[in-house]
Amino acid sequence: MSSLVIHDLHVSIGDKPIVKGLSLTVNSGEVHAIMGPNGTGKSTLAKVIAGHPDYTVTGGDVLLDGRSVLEQEADERARAGLFLAFQYPSEIPGVSIANFLRAAVQARLPEGEEIDASAYYKRLYAKMDLLKIDRKFTSRSVNEGFSGGEKKRCEILQMAMLEPKMAVMDETDSGLDIDALRIVSEGVNALRGPGLGVLMITHYQRLLSYIVPDFVHVMYDGRIVKSGDKSLALELETRGYDWVKQELAALPA
Amino acid sequence: MTATTASPAPTVGAFTRAAFEAHLATLPPLPDWWLARKRAAFERFATLPLPVRTDEAWRFSNVAGLTLDGFAPPAPARAVPFASIGISKAARLIFANGRLFSREILAPDLGRRGVVVDTLQNALREHGDVVREHLLAQPARLGSGKFSALHEAFLVDGAFIHVPRGVEVELPIGIFSFALGDRAAVFPHTLVVADEGARVTVIDYFGSQDDSERQLAVGANDLYAGHGARITYVGKQDWSHQALALQSNSTVVRRDASVQSLNLHLGARQARHESHSQLQAPGANSEMLSLTVARDDQEFDQRTLQIHQAPNTRSDLLYKNALLQKARTIFSGLIVVDPDAQKTDAYQSNRNLMLSDEAEANSLPGLEIQANDVRCTHGATTSRIDPEQEFYLQTRGIPKRAADELLTFGFFEEVLNRLSQDDLHAALRALIQNNFSGEKATR
Questions:
Q1: Is the pLDDT of residue A155 over 50?
Q2: pLDDT band at residue B442, thresholds of 50, 70 and 90?
């Protein structure tokens, strides 16, 4: 049983506060969705959890299984069990998916222990079959020249291989047509289970009809302003975000 | 030209007239023409000054590091480092301290097909005309005249590969040249002649036993691709990290022939590599590739010349350097297109990846075009590791150092992918990997 606890988190880029006191707990087996209008700090939250060096945490904490990750480099966090599925995954020319994932798996082995290459490929091919990815994919350079759907499927393949405890998925639905969205969602659903907690960040409700969340949170101006179950997502879909803003404005300061 | 300042006195360092005579005394009887050429070369060497900082051909080079003092002809070697790169070969020649250590013909039909893989000393006796026509027959045009003369004067032995008309040697031929012992001076040479329609791949490996040994290596290679011939040449320079190394390559490409050369530069304290390609007849094609891992205080100084002497010729140069710590690289390239070399395609690209803020990459691309219907491009770029790519790899659990290594391999892959032989690709990759992880690779 794992937990990702975000406690009163404050984040700035330079002098500009972006996340302003956000708290949230994700447990293993749960799927949480964070929705919100553009520019409210959703992607910043994802990158900060993963350890991007450009952001400064000015207050609060992020804990994985009770241990703060804020002092850890991005790679240490990943090895501790965090995973970020990128909205815009980087293209890495000249590095094949097979070699890239091999390096990531190797990094999780104890010092001095060499990866078992045949076992690695067996596992890789099994995961690719599960996600219905062509095996020829492995020799292509990471994300280079990939379509939007291929990039996102590549992210899910990495998640499947690295078996994180907690996955943060940043706008996984962006840039996908409906077929790609279904394939990617099937992949995520195949990985859902008691050993994985998921924090999905999305602008649209559309994704949530494929990956049905246990909890839905509305993020606005760097904070979570409303939480509920999946019906909240549907309400947002029909009513938009303005009513949330109006509700907030009506509250006493 | 009149010198306005006093020229520096010619320096010979350890390579005095007495040393030259002593060197000649160790050689078997030489053909008259070769002895005369060696003597003339020594005179040139003794007369030419060492390069100075103001020489355009040595711009940005550490000319103070070009010392010839304190070296000696090395003693014959009793053993050599394990010489294998994990690739099946048709033949293997191993030289230690300039002399033949072993010669193995592994593909039994080579001799029957008329392929000669032998020492230059034997070839001077048995194939004198071919050697005379090709050995060091092209002038050094890139500034190393003094060192080319030193090489010719003190050359002891080297490799001679002759592939006759229409013969294809399927497996590569491996040449290993080792410098063993502190203060050793070596002068490796590889001469490859591919006659009409012949095909051959040559792997030229240069290495030392120990990275702390101060050595001097002044080498050269001559590649001749006759009508329709194809030569693939892979040079792997992995000398001691205290060595001063100067290597001069001359490639001559005839009608419809093609030469692909890839030089991997890993070793030496200071390494100068000069590469000349002459496209002499229509349809000639030269692909000049290079990969360098420059680390610590190493300096790699690369000068190239692509000379188009006939119409419808092609040359394509891609040199990539990865720089770590306080390393320096210099790339200076020139494409020359003669007036009647119309329809020339010439490309020249130097790309530097900086893995350290203290490293320094210098790039001097150049064109000299006298024909009017040509396609020539040249360019140089210097970039750093992309922080977003690095972050992406780190979020997969890959530590920063390993991530940078992976990104560097990705950067090199474009060059390695030009090789059509997969096993060669893999072997080079492994060699670079060993270099990266700090292991000494004498394989």
A1: yes
A2: very low
* Torsion angle (degrees, nearest 10) of CA A101, A107, A111, A117: -10
More confident residue, A188 or A245: A188
Return the structure tokens found at B317. Answer: 């140069």
Chain A residue closest to B410 (CA)?
A94
Q: pLDDT for B87-100, tens place per residue?
A: 889 999 999 999 99
Per-residue CA distances from A67 to A62, A64, B91 (Å): 8, 5, 60
The string of DSSP codes covering B71-126 is -BPPPPPS-------S---SEEEEEETTEEEEEEE-STTTTTTT-EEEEHHHHHHH
Q: What angle do CA B277, B283, B287 make, to 5 degrees?
A: 40
Average pLDDT estimate for A232-245: 86
State ipTM.
0.96
| B339-362 pLDDT per residue, tens | 999 999 999 999 999 999 999 999
Confidence at B5, pLDDT banded by 50, 70, 90: low
- φ, ψ for residue A193, nearest 5 deg: 170, 180
Cβ-Cβ contacts under 8 Å, B400 against chain A: 73, 75
Query: Rounded to whole angstroms, what are the CA distances from A65 to A165, B283, B431?
Result: 10, 67, 42
Name the helix (H) or strand (E) containing B26. Answer: helix B17-26
Pick from A83, A90, A107: which is nearest to B388 by CB? A90
Strands A3-13 and A56-64, sheet pairing: antiparallel
Does the structure show a pLDDT above 80 at B65? yes
Per-residue model confidence (pLDDT) at position B406: 94
A139 interfacial to chain B (CB closer than 8 Å): no
- For chain B, the average pLDDT equals 94
CATH class of A3-91+146-250: alpha beta
Which residues partner with A35 through β-bridges?
Answer: A202, A218
Partners of residue A74 in chain B, C-beta under 8 Å: 391, 394-395
Q: Check if B412 contacts A (Cβ < 8 Å).
A: yes
- What is the DSSP annotation of chain A? --EEEEEEEEEEETTEEEEEEEEEEEETT-EEEEE--TTSSHHHHHHHHHT-TT-EEEEEEEEETTEE-TTS-HHHHHHHTEEEE-SSPPPEEEEEHHHHHHHHHHTTSPTTPPP-HHHHHHHHHHHHHHTT--GGGGGSEETTT--HHHHHHHHHHHHHHH--SEEEEESTTTT--HHHHHHHHHHHHHH-STT-EEEEEES-SGGGGTS--SEEEEEETTEEEEEE-HHHHHHHHHH-SHHHHHHHHHS--
What tens digit of pLDDT does each residue of B117-160 get? Answer: 999 999 999 999 999 999 999 988 999 999 999 999 999 999 99
Q: Are A158 and A184 in contact (CB under 8 A)?
A: no
Cβ contacts of A78 on chain B, cutoff 8 Å: 394-398
- Sign of the alpha-carbon dihedral angle for B125, B126, B127, B128: positive
Q: What angle do CA B63, B251, B374 make, to 5 degrees?
A: 100
**C-alpha dihedral sign at A141, A147, A149, A155:** positive
Does the pLDDT of residue B10 top 80, yes or no? no
Residues A158 and A101: their CA atoms lie apart, in Å, by: 7
